[in-house]
Specification:
single chain, mainly alpha, three-stranded mixed sheet, 4 helices
Amino acid sequence: MLAEFAHVLIRKRRPLETIRSDIGVLERTWQIVAPDASTVSLALIGVEEHQMSFWDAMLWATAKQHRLTTILSEDGPTGSTVGDVRYLSPFSTE
């Protein structure tokens, strides 16, 4: 979710124009998927079964619904796999 990406960069005090530019690149080069109403129900499973925060569960549920195998997020369990979805940090140097 691009909102999460932007939020993290804002917290890291990146210039807003740079964030806008980065989002533009992502929009042109990646398929962007969005949550829908049924995503919330699946996210509640993430909260209950995997002890995720609601917003982390929304990211996880959106990925799961769209059959995505990887989430780029520094907020999730980086390096782990939860319900067939792997978490990687986009800021990792590894």
